[in-house]
Amino acid sequence: MEMSDSGLPPIQRVVTGHDENGRAIFKSEDVTPTKMIASGDASFLTIWSTETVPADLNDERDGRDLPTGLTLERGSVIRITDMLPGKESPFHRTNSVDYGIVLKGEIELELDDGRKKTIREGGIIVQRGTNHLWRNTTDSVCRIAFILIEAPAYKHDGVALNEAKPEQVHPAYGEMGE
Fold first, then answer.
1. How far apart are CA 29 and CA 15, in angstroms?
2. Tens digit of pLDDT for each residue in 59-87?
3. Measuring CA to CA, which residue among 58, 62, 100, 61 is closest to residue 80?
4. Which of 12, 7, 10, 5 lies closest to 33, judged by CA?
5. What is the pTM of this model?
6. Other CB atoms closer than 10 Å to residue 47's CB: what's the count?
7. How far apart are CA 158 and CA 49, in angstroms?
């Protein structure tokens, strides 16, 4: 079994669907490792994505194959992120509501005012379009499942706050995406 670039085990993915009679079936199953992103601070694996919200359940394409970008272009995505020890993301803001579920280890979330919270294994983050960064302050890999759902920009005093995606704010992220 191929290990993830982070050293953690690969991810099992089971996808369901419908047969010609409309009955539930297992459409596919795979076990896939996370792969290092160009910045070298984390490894990613997209599990599924949709082009729209709400999702189109009649779209038979494999959601893993749809382009998502490093964060989210549109629709929704679920991705596994393995943040390496001692690494951090740049500050960034996206037009999405993000649910982060810490599956292994712990991660520090810092907001643009410098306040920080540590989220431990089993903890859940609800990220609502705020400017933030992720930092792994430990000596172990932190695995997080992120579910991102497209949302309109947050408006402060009636003015939409601009997105600041990692690839827009830090050269190490360049034109990254999947």
1. 6
2. 999 999 998 876 677 899 999 999 999 99
3. 100
4. 10
5. 0.91
6. 17
7. 31
